[in-house]
Amino acid sequence: MSPGTLINCFEVTPERDERFLQPWRQADDLLRSRGGYRTTRLHEALGPQARSRHVHVAELASVETWRSAVAGPEFAALAARMADLSPTPGFHTVEIARSTAGPEQDR
């Protein structure tokens, strides 16, 4: 099983926040209950210039476990409620990691 990072961007206008956040929270609770997450964070843009106002970043213990969890009808129903918000999910791995404490680390 391979770990990975899920990054999913959503185009949500401020007046649609609650319409987005309610099903997002339900989907997050469902996926947590089925395993696979190490951490999950939902980021909100600080200004109006961002195309994707909400960005979800989740570290996955297993991409395969996550894929299995989203294959069910419960998740499909929640995803359908957010489909018009232009979600762009993708799996990623670290290519370059930097910090102020040390030199760059390429993988």
From TrEMBL:
SUPFAM superfamilies: Dimeric alpha+beta barrel (SSF54909). Its EC number is 1.14.-.-. InterPro entries: Dimeric_a/b-barrel. One of its GO terms (molecular function) is monooxygenase activity. Keywords: Monooxygenase, Oxidoreductase. This is Antibiotic biosynthesis monooxygenase family protein.
